[in-house]
Amino acid sequence: MPFISSISCIFIVVRVESFAAVEPKIRVLVFQGKELQFKADNSRPLIVRGIAPTGKTIKSFNINLENGQLRYSINGNSSQWRYPSKNAQIRIWTRDPRGTWLGKRRFAGELRLVDKNNSIYVINYLKIEKYLKSVVGSEMPKDWPIEALKAQAVASRTYALHQLKKKSEYDLDSTVSSQVYLGVEAETARTIQAVNSTRSIVMLHNGRLIDAVFHSSSGGQTESSIEVWGKYRPYLKSVLDYDQQNPSYKWEKRIEQKKLSEIFKKIGGFNAIRIQEKTNTDRIKIAKIYGPKGVQTLTGKEIRNLFNLKSTLVSFEIIPEVDNSIVEKNESYIYGQNVNWVDKEFLIQPNRVLVFNDRPPRIQDNNFLLVKGSGAGHGVGLSQWGAKTMAEQGASFRRILRHFYTGIQITTF
Questions:
Q1: Is residue 39 part of a domain?
Q2: Whole-number CA gyration radius for the chain
Q3: H-type helices in 265-352, by residue range?
Q4: What is the domain range of residue 294?
Q5: DSSP state of 155
Q6: Domain count of the fold of the chain
Q7: What is the pTM of this model?
Q8: Does one domain contain both 178 and 266?
Q9: What is the pLDDT of residues 237-295, one digit of tens each?
Q10: Does a structural domain hold residue 287?
Q11: Can you point out the beta strands (E) in 222-299?
């Protein structure tokens, strides 16, 4: 065992030094569509490679898909469409430090185009520290405490490096499914300060980069990775949050019967919901939806997506207008409020909760599903609102990170 441990240490040193020698570049998917326009920001033109020489100063570059084939025009001349050679790699950049316009956003670095699945993918290649100056401003308000911004910078850097080369064409996308990246406009003096002052700092566990996931707020207690994704990560455990200042700490959403019928069309609509399994922090893991034509089993993530909820830390209420005489208490088909499924203990309220001996009847159109929730996001790892509160109370970014990621080492790559 000691011999194996020493080999592991040598591997770590080589890996860290290889990162330090050359600043890593990140590949970010920033657009996917059939038609787009690139523009120079000011006096410096665009540089475009992968097309035939034009002899012109390129101020704008339009490209689209027509009948499955790429075509482009230069400087807004829509009467002169040209076709790049097959399998050409089109690359666009500028020497202007303000970047290249793509639609309503500017991006630093190089933009590469990929024709894939009858769509144009735009992948931004840039150095990671430049990328992070936008990510921090895209993920957190710029006026938040600087130690919270620093914690976000380190988490985002670690997360991005952890994703390198896991996909063939790009490392991350620019949405919440990876981490939000809005281009040059999201950079501010404070996000630049947060990134520069933590330059190259990352989080490791047993010598390896951690999967530094984060979320907006957990609703009081973060969740462990095993509960949400079924993957055990020793550094992603449930810990106390400090996110009570979050506007989404408590929230409600009303879903009308018409919308429920659309969502659960396959089972004839929505009659009732039963929570079958919860996490240790009361987030939904598994639930059953009952409809006139069947039953549908869903994970908490699926429910969150279908209902467009902020989190899975939720409870449900349906308030039907019925006669009290049909209220019973014995079977497990139920909908209503204040329902505790543990040991089938039901709190019954007249005109509020119904229990039926058979499949529950269709809910009337004038009734609705009321969702009461807490927090926003998957609840695993760093809580951004928790980091804000801890920073306001005097915690350093290192202390914040060590609170939300258990047993980590904070070092430079």
A1: no
A2: 26
A3: 300-307
A4: 251-373
A5: H
A6: 2
A7: 0.83
A8: no
A9: 999 999 999 998 999 999 988 899 999 999 998 888 889 999 999 999 999 998 888 99
A10: yes
A11: 251-256, 272-278, 284-291, 294-299
